[in-house]
Amino acid sequence: MKKAPIIWVKHLVLIFFSFSMVFPFLWMVISALKTKDEIWQFPPTLWPNKPMWHHFADAWAMAPFDQYIFNSIFTASAIVLIQVINSALIAYAFTQLRFKGRNLLFSIILITYMLPVAATYVPSYVILADFNLLDTYSGLILSNAASVFGIFLFRQAFLQVPKELIEAARVDGARHWTIIWKIIFPTTKATFITFSLISFVQNYNNYLWPTLITRSESKYLITTGLRQFFIQEGAYGMQWPLIMAASAFTVLPLLILFVFVQKWIISGISDQGLKG
Amino acid sequence: MGVPAAKLKPNKQLLAIKRSKRKLSLTPLLFILPAIVPLIIFWIYPMGKSLYISFTDWDYVSPEYEFVGFSNYTDLLTDPGFYSVLVNTVVFSMGVVIPCVGGGLLLALLVSGNGKGMGIYRTLIFSPWVTPTVAVSIVWSWIYEPNVGLANWILTMLNLPALGWTSSSTWAMPAVIIVSIWKGVGWAMIFYLNALKKVPVSLYEAASLDGASKWRQFLHITIPFISPTTLFLIVITSIDALQAYDQIQVLTQGGPAGSTRTMLYFYYQTAFEQFNMGKATATAILLVVITAAFSLLQFIFSKRWVHYQ
């Protein structure tokens, strides 16, 4: 009897917090549906008198959003594929192979994780320019080809694979490739999924660096394209409903993806390593 | 029957080790190179190169440049404008890190356990983290609209004065900080959830038997047990906060009157608007030094309050 009210208070507090976290997304959709007149009303209406569903189609037609979203999904997928392979390979070397300078190399990578990536922008920009890779898919993909976070995550996961399993396979004469594919991959599948999802989200959301190295509209990622659209529409008397509609179709694919895969992302962050 | 087999095994193992030792020279390289090559080209080499450029007066366009020694650094450190950039950076970072870590712990305590609906709360609270900062900052810039925005509507309903938010040099910084906390607190919560799960239940049981109150249990059992996570989160969220850019670019562009210009934003403007590469890279190197010093300080101080098992 004494405990019940405490639980109710807890739920009320949580409902309040959850609602505050989600409300900006709801407000985005509600604002997208308002007319130009209604959106400037004060106090604001909580639901539009007459929802303008066609604003989504209008905004979609005003800029090549399909191209932007394709660019983002395509480059993010390519980056994830490369990062998964090269992070897993180097993590295998760190955990299963013995070679000179292994600890030194790992320490160097550990330090890079601590450094602000922004410090690399100017020279990286020059490197891309020298190789004629500015404003290309290859430039976007190659400059993001390594993930220090991925190396850590995979190393942490591979350390937890039972040693006896790998020893036994090695004694049976299994090659490295077989060990990775038949033993390590099946036991650490969760890490592969989690890392792929987190890296995909991060690359889809990446803004400053892709903006610096792309110039033509046909290569813009969705983040750059949306920001461009925001500036343009802002210049002609703030078309907030259209801007909110465009923001909605940038954000919603990720939120929908998240609803289906949240188990992997949340458990991945908390369960698999990267603890202080 | 079993004896010869047992005898054979070590030999076989020895052979395997010998075999792998012979191949040792090249195989590791094959595994290391695919990650190390891009890491060197786009991380390690540029870091060194940035340090080099910071001692020159390179303007990106002309192929020639001169060594200017430490003058980029002395220029920055004697420029009062740069001090306000430093102050902004510290205010922003503290303003984001403390609520994120503290709020993350509070939320984790609330949603821990397998009670009804906890999974849903976790998902909702974490959801802002997956969305692009640029897109949600655009949404927030509408919320902060000074005349008809949601933020001021809520304030007037609470009988509070409406604020200028991103157009006021006093409130622009809090506005940017609020967006950053909103986006990051769920991330901290998830880490704490895991840390809380690992505190041995037996400790709480023993403490209850001794008559310790919930609050004392929290102070003397929970806090020390999760302190490694706290340290990790403080370091990681600080590194992130020191590099915040997207939300500042969308919401305020460093303004009004430079009130939200942080080091990274200053770096971006110096490098890619003014093409003063020497000064820009000097800023980046200072940011590296500050980040490194800060992380190091955290680790040194942590020896006093972090309890590793």
TrEMBL record, chain A:
Top-level division of the source organism's lineage: Bacteria
Broad class of the protein's primary localization: membrane
Record PANTHER family: ABC TRANSPORTER PERMEASE PROTEIN MG189-RELATED (PTHR43744:SF12), ABC TRANSPORTER PERMEASE PROTEIN MG189-RELATED-RELATED (PTHR43744)
Organism the protein comes from: Neobacillus novalis
Keyword Chloroplast: no
Subcellular location field: Cell membrane
UniProt xrefs under CDD domains: TM_PBP2 (cd06261)
Family according to the record: Belongs to the binding-protein-dependent transport system permease family.
Domain called ABC transmembrane type-1: residue spans: 69-261
Record-level GO BP terms: transmembrane transport
Keywords recorded for this protein, A-Z: Cell membrane, Membrane, Transmembrane, Transmembrane helix, Transport
PROSITE patterns, per database record: ABC_TM1
InterPro entries hit by this protein: MetI-like, MetI-like_sf
TM region positions: 12-33, 68-92, 104-128, 140-158, 179-201, 240-261
Membrane topology: Multi-pass membrane protein
An annotated GO cellular component: plasma membrane
Protein name: Carbohydrate ABC transporter permease
